[in-house]
Amino acid sequence: MLFQKTSTRTSLSFQSGINQMGGYSVVMDWDSSNFSLSPIRYEARYASRNCDVIMARLKKHADLLELARYSTVPVINGCCDKYHPCQALADLMTIYEVSGTFSGLCLAYVGVHNNVANSLVAGCMTLGIKLLLVTPILNSPSWDEELMQTAYRSGYVEKVDQLSPIHPGFEIEEELIESERSIIYQQAENRMHVQKALLLHLLR
């Protein structure tokens, strides 16, 4: 597990899931390894000779692509500037647990258009879920023009351009977090379970 960014949920959920499956994980910090000094292709070739899967949480999607290109084992995107696929998989798993279906659903994403939004766009298109994006704030490094054009053409994704009022820095009220109907922690736990399924799929 290679970390260039700080992490609690990604690190803990992957380590716990790997341990539950009978494996073990090696955690490497980008800045305290030769990844920070050598070209990625050299380090990727070496690292992949020592493990079965590489999970990487990197700052730049381009670096993740280079890592995957030169690795001889599967590389899981644990988060980058463009995508956060494990988060989206956990979201979609939780939606299925609660709803029992993906058919006829309309999911609303409210917040900054970022890596999570991109991953939900890709996931919802794949599963045929209608997605309404309410994203008045754009995180420019996350923008994926090709993905969004494909999404708009698919008919599964729509965008609402303005949400008012905007309260920067506040994602959810505490009373909603503590509500008996809240599924926040269920979704957080599902990160581990969906990542175990992903690992099993990649190792078969």
UniProtKB/TrEMBL annotation:
It comes from the Bacteria. PROSITE patterns: CARBAMOYLTRANSFERASE. Keywords: Transferase. Residues 1-97 form the Aspartate/ornithine carbamoyltransferase carbamoyl-P binding domain. GO terms for biological process: citrulline biosynthetic process; L-arginine biosynthetic process via ornithine. This is Ornithine carbamoyltransferase. It comes from Paenibacillus oceani. It holds the Pfam family OTCace. Reversibly catalyzes the transfer of the carbamoyl group from carbamoyl phosphate (CP) to the N(epsilon) atom of ornithine (ORN) to produce L-citrulline. Residues 165-201 form the Aspartate/ornithine carbamoyltransferase Asp/Orn-binding domain. One of its GO terms (molecular function) is amino acid binding. Belongs to the aspartate/ornithine carbamoyltransferase superfamily. SUPFAM superfamilies: Aspartate/ornithine carbamoyltransferase.
